[in-house]
Amino acid sequence: MPGALDIPLAGETVVLLPDRALWWPRMSLLAIADLHLGKGDHFRRAGIALPRGGTALDLQRLDALLDATRAARLLVLGDLLHAVVNDAPWRAAWIRWRAGRAALSVELVSGNHDRALRAQPALATTLGLHVHGPSLAFAPFVFVHDPADAAPPAGYRVGGHLHPVVRLPGVPRLPAFRFDAAGGVLPAFTAFAGGWRVDREPGTRLFACAPDVVVDVSR
To answer: Known InterPro entries for this protein (predicted)?
Structure first.
């Protein structure tokens, strides 16, 4: 895939994709974190003016990744939702998108914004989701939302929640993957997210998501 970068991780080969996703070819699994559906609707209802179209753009990006990888399984590492607004446009857009991907298994490791999905199983069913608890062990990885939460089962932790970004000379901040000996953090998939600045340090690998390429910025 153009611009993608294969790396070894916990004894497996995974592929980092410029559009902020991790592809595990052996398991036909595409992982993303922090989609935050409904965030724009939630802010607009609170009186904060935001541009429309964020959900449609994110779903178009997701379609492109699924077409490129032909993944059988999409795993969202928490915060698929931002807030439940039952009559908001994001919900209809997601249901239409899900109907067009009926053969795809869409799974969620619960994040702090996904309370409604845990409390309302019928909502998860309507949205075509299989909701796991706070962790999903899939050796050698343990997929989580917040890597700082209480220790999950043994394994190499892969999560989201922190929205890592890097600053490079002369360019705007870029979403980034961060990996160390204990685990890794994926960048937020949605473009509408803040960021946690991460810096180079010993024992840490950083990979910046430039518009069309993943760049190793660890050194």
So the answer is: Metallo-depent_PP-like, PdeM-like, Pesterase_MJ0037-like
